[in-house]
Amino acid sequence: MIATDSHETMTDHDPYTTIEESDRAFWGEAVADAIESREPTEPIVIKGGVSPSGVPHIGHLNEIVRGYVVAEVLRDRGHNVRQVFTSDDKDRLRKLPRRLADLDWNVVELGEVDAGALGRNLGKPYTAIPDPFGCCDSYGEHFTTLLARSADLLDIPIDVVSNTDLYADGTFEDITKYILDNQQSAREVLADYQNSVDAAYVPFQAECQSCGMLTDGITDVDPDAGTVSYTCQDVTVGEETIDGCGHEGTVSLREGKLPWRFEWPAQWSVLDVDFEPFGKDHAEGSWPSGVDIAQNVLDVQPPVAMVYEWFTLNGDALSSSAGNVVTAEEVLDLLESEVFRYFFCKDPRKQRDFNVAHIDQLVDEFDRLERVYFDEIEADADERERAEQVYPIAVDEPREGRVRIPYTFAAVLAMTDDPELREEIARREGHIPDDAPAWAVEDALARVEKARTWARRTDNAFNYDLKREELPAVDFDADTAAALDALADFVADGADGEAIQGRIYELADEYDLDVGDFFSAGYRLLFDLDEGPKLGPFLATLDREFVVGRLRRDR
RNA sequence: GGGCCGGUAGCUCAGUCAGGCAGAGCGUCUGGCUUUUAACCAGACGGUCAUGGGUUCAAUUCCCAUCCGGCCCGCCA
Q1: Distance, angstroms, CA A393 to C1' B49?
Q2: Cβ atoms A248, A209 nearer than 8 A
Q3: How many Å apart are CA A327 and CA A5, to the nearest integer?
Q4: Which residue from A5, A111, A122, A360 has the fewest beta carbons nearer than 10 Å?
């Protein structure tokens, strides 16, 4: 329509510049600035959305948490913000996922449900497919529920909006009619982005009244009557072609959907969206065409945009089909939700690996952020500014006096199941201040279980495998053996951890052993390793009979 | 093939917008704490800022090319 202007307007809507062109230290502030400069009406609407195609993983959470970050910045500035999450559940099921999950996050293989029954639903809207678990009204509702629960787990309030409902309740009706009334202009605009758009293209997919599939075989449109006629023809989804049933019929504008390229800008219009983050896969396809359609077909202003890079998981692409996924529920077994939220506060423009093996580093980073925020450690001005802006978003109610036990040390504490002993060791090692309030101690110790889960799941160096059943193969010289016997006698007489620790040093001296070698002998006996937790206190946590027998190499 | 995003210490990451001595944490090493043992304290080591050119008094930063990782340019979302 205004071809000469299109380049210029696209530059204004380059989704990368929202953050790039700002001098803000924190991207959330940059985006908030861009939104405010539009002087939006309240409430400011922030949207995200995904198709409920299967088990939601941390990549999908970008659509919720990135928006939440900006929402919180705006709320802090006094704005009323509504965060909407559209479940794009009117989309076609294109492919069966390899794994599904029930509402309690128990993952099951496709083979464990009726895959054949599911497979007969390819090409139908997610909400028109029975829930394979039988607990929700549809396949779509099932996985939308899991998406909503993911948000709940992170304490992020969102309004979940079903796209299916928007069609069914008529919300989309006017705009659908408008697009069909203006098919010519719709085609011309979209044709710049999709080669397949020709004179016969109709921006509507009808839901076949006979087989339920969404078909592109539109034969006639009567905008005034509000009806679309179709022939149910074959549909290509991914690699496969699904046979249409050939049924000919006529449906209302509520019985079908707009193609995605139109549906997205239509959502902006009917939901009055002011900001939407999206993955880089949209940055050069859907987004520019969406902007063009919004401006030149629908005559609405596109929202402020932001591109986020995709996460990888343990170095590889997140992939439902390859099974390389991790859910919010699983992540929260390993770390606190505020740490996970912090992960999403990091620069969205960088590809980021969520690496379970290195989770301790992510947690350390968060702990440092917290200490910088509370001025407990020195930091330069940039880091302080970042902490001031980011920390209150990651943490709901910043509370002074909070205590954090270093993550790897929390893993060390997991060597004992005794909560009092955990606390005692943490205090002794200086990780819990004497004047720490009870709530802070309790919160701090809660990390121990998460770190234990991490150590076990990754089977790393912190996963103490006490060789309780069987004496590891050891071969000590006479002096070491004698010193171990003496230590056994000392333990047998009853001694606390610090006393045992001290005795180890004394015995090393008495028997002219290298202290390090003597400690290693102890770790060798217990773990078949050369290193381990502080030995004296650790021996004190175990039952005396076992320790004495083991030190004497009897059992 | 064309376009776009990213690449900074062994690891995890700031810094690049607006050119001005290359940064933090962790790890490693050394020393200290009248007991080095995954705690604590001090210090050190550690960099071709992916590579090669260009502009500049000065380039991690700006420009060009290349490499690597990824996305888009079919359909679909």
Answers
A1: 31
A2: no
A3: 44
A4: A111
- Chain A 74-103 residues whose Cβ is under 7 Å from strand B: 88, 91-92, 94
Q: What is the token pair recorded at A170? A: 């008529």
Nearest 5°: CA angle at A22, between A366 and A26? 10
- Tell me the pairing of strands A205-207 and A214-215: antiparallel
Is strand B within 7 Å of residue A516 (CB)? Answer: yes
Nucleic strand B contacts from chain A, 120-179, CB < 7 Å: none
pLDDT band for position A12 (cuts 50, 70, 90): low
What is the model's pLDDT at position A9?
43
Q: Considering all nucleic acid strands, name the nucleotide whose C1' atom is nearest to the C-alpha of residue A51.
A: B77
Residues 6 or more apart whose CB falls under 8 angstroms from that of A79 comprise: A36, A42, A43, A44
Radius of gyration of chain A (CA): 30
Q: How far is CA A467 from the centre of its chain?
A: 36
pLDDT of residue A238: 67
**What does the pLDDT average to over A94-122?**
88
Nearest 5°: the CA angle A371, A374, A377 is 45
Q: How far apart are the first and last CA of chain A?
A: 86
What is the Cα–Cα distance from A501 to A20, expressed in whole angstroms? 56
Strands A304-308 and A275-279: parallel
- Is the distance between the Cβ of A364 and the closest atom of strand B smaller than 7 Å? yes
| Local confidence band at A330 (pLDDT 50, 70, 90 cut-offs) | very high
Question: What confidence score (pLDDT) does residue A231 get?
Answer: 95
Q: Mean pLDDT across the stretch A273-290?
A: 92
| Alpha carbon distance A379, A317 (integer Å) | 35
The answer to whether the beta carbons of residues A491 and A544 sit under 8 Å apart is yes
Instruction: Provide, in whole angstroms, the distance separating residue A429's CA from nucleotide B10's C1'.
Output: 28
Q: Report yes or no for ipTM above 0.90.
A: no
Q: What is the tally of helices (H) and strands (E) in chain A?
A: 24, 18
Mean pLDDT, residues A15-34: 88
Helix, strand, coil percentages (3-state) for chain A, rounded to 5, are 45, 15, 40
Average pLDDT, chain A: 88
Q: Are A274 and A46 in contact (CB under 8 A)?
A: yes
Q: Which of A80, A82, A78, A83 is nearest to A63 (CA)?
A: A83
What does the alpha-carbon distance between residue A274 and residue A80 come to, in Å, rounded to a whole number?
Answer: 12
Please determine, for residue A1, whether its predicted confidence score (pLDDT) is greater than 70. no
Residue A415's pLDDT is 76
Q: Are A253 and A246 within 8 A, CB to CB?
A: no
Q: Is A544 exposed, middle or buried (0-12, 13-18, 19+ CB in 10 A)?
A: middle
Amino acid type, A226: G
Backbone phi, then psi, for A466, in 5-degree steps?
Answer: -70, 120
Judge whether A351 and A310 are in contact, CB under 8 Å: yes
What tens digit of pLDDT does each residue of A506-520 get? 888 888 888 888 888
Which nucleotide is closest to A379, CA to C1'?
B24
